[in-house]
Amino acid sequence: MAVNGSYNAKDIQVLEGLEAVRRRPGMYVGGTDIKALHHLVYEVVDNSIDEALAGVCTRIEIIIHTDMSVTVTDNGRGIPVDMHPTEKKSALEVVMTKLHAGGKFGGGAYKVSGGLHGVGVSAVNALSEWCEVEVRLDGQVHFQRYERGYPKEPVKVIGKAKAEEHGTRTTFKYDPTIFTEALEFRFDTLVQRFREMAFVTRGITIYFLDERSNREMTFHFEGGITSFVRYLNRNREILHPVVYAEKEIENVGIEFAVQYTDAYTESIYAFANTINTIDGGTHLTGMRAALTRVVNDYARKGGLLKEADPNFSGDDTREGLTAIISVKHPDPQFESQTKVKLMNPEVQTYVTQVVGEAFGTFLEENPQAAKAIIAKCLTSARARDAARKARDLVIRKSALESLTLPGKLADCSGRDATKTELYIVEGDSAGGSAKQGRDRHFQAILPLRGKILNTERARLDKILGNNEVRSLISALGTGIGDNFDLTGLRYGRIIIMTDADVDGSHIRTLLLTFFFRYMPTLIDDGHLYIAQPPLFRLAYKNQVHYAYNEADKDKLLKSLGVSPDKVSLSRYKGLGEMNPVQLWETTMNPLNRTLLLVTVDDAAEADRTFDMLMGDAVDPRKRFIQTHAKAVRNLDI
After folding, report:
1. What is the dihedral of CA 422, 423, 429, 433, to 10 degrees?
2. What DSSP designation does 217 have?
3. Does residue 19 carry a catalytic annotation?
4. Does the annotation mark 426 as catalytic?
5. Has 237 been annotated as catalytic?
6. Catalytic: which of 499, 585, 607, 611?
7. Which of 426, 602, 607, 611 is catalytic?
8. Do 46 and 175 fall into the same domain?
9. Would you call 485 a catalytic residue per the annotation?
10. pTM score over 0.90
11. Which member of 201, 224, 452, 542 has the lowest number of beta carbons within 10 Å of its beta carbon?
12. Residue 580 and residue 574: Cα distance in Å, rounded?
């Protein structure tokens, strides 16, 4: 095979300073998308949290300014500003401009730290159009400004500080030549992250202000992760008080909080040095193993499991469980710079020991709670067995065999899953238009009759008895639950297409609940979308225009330069009102359509929201409706 170009010593590039970060931002902050943009904020705030973990910081303030710059202020010790012995420049400049420079390697300044790689704040500096740092230390205010990672001048004193004042203020504006999309910080996404930080850093106060909208939030939780569990379960029926324990083994701090509820799914979150490790790791594995072992041991010892009965599986012992595991490790090993999975093998042993001892003691000392938990596990085991049988029935049928009923799946001719799409459509009327209007080479249509089951209020065995859900599972080809396998996915895009009315919104929410609870991998891997059909049709002088919302309509009328009374304006009540050509042009043609990618920025908050909106408790849902009623637009009555 011919190789183009040379590959000699002269071809080896050495990127000096922060140039490597600017050239390959994905290696340091995970990319240049909205997630990476938020990661810039997290990296700076993580440094302040590290000061709190060291016991020298009690308050952190984050402000998003109207120009999209961000300021993070803490009352920690302040980054050192004296001369570095080998670099011959201020330690502040070294920290801000050198990768792998910081106080987190020698073990003296920080016992535990979230920003262990030492590239956090310097990477943020490298990816910023400009960055300014103020340090209050020893009665003086020290200052340095950087542009695209390079200092504009040496560190200088710009004023006096009160003797008791100390801390660091960092202000940065992300570089639009790196983050080239039109990105904006999301208040709700950041709020969720700061709330989690406050829960797992007991006693810290986090204040967040968004000057663009004048929204603000303050978090402070003396109860720590116990408060976190109560927060997650506030809309659920609980079976017992929160079980909490905290212990240090070999300089590794471990704390956990667990509580069983009447829910049918688990809500478990793992943190390492306050960072939400969304892919889990050894701490999560240790907690799960301990809980399953302790429940089985107690059930056997108390005769609550018969000799002929098999042990409870991990799934059985986690149904309805809300749990938080948080570890503080002096030398954490993460899978990547974005810290989504903890890898330290010894942590699993330590966590298993701490959780096992504390939860075992709780069951022994609280027999009524223990019996309620075991009864929950028994019911779960029986339901899981029924679900397994129902699931096997679904899997044994091929997609074509199970979807031969009239009005069901209209498959596409293409078989390349990276290029095919499945539209889940509300009703036979819209399904008919979609089938006629689609491009049958790569677009498949699955009409649903009526509303699918509310999967938040049902176990898997009942869910699999629902014909619409079974049709959906068969069409996707992935299986469900224990047998879910993404490699079997038959379509690269799963697109929910419902009417722009109350019923359509309800059906969309029911489908989102199902995917979030039982096929979350589809969301995590970017396969789930929501179609955006137009809301208005405007006809003027033999020309037809479509508007997708009120703002679009007003903008269109303004561009036409005519008053509304001279335009034939109609509002679509449903997809079925559009003929196949209109549906193709506005909602299904890849050249014209608008699709919304479904993402989950914060699993804990999504879990709480689905539980509140779709669960059994009425009062929280009523409060939500009353609070947000005035913000509703285009409500169909």
Report:
1. -80
2. E
3. no
4. yes
5. no
6. 499
7. 426
8. yes
9. no
10. no
11. 542
12. 13
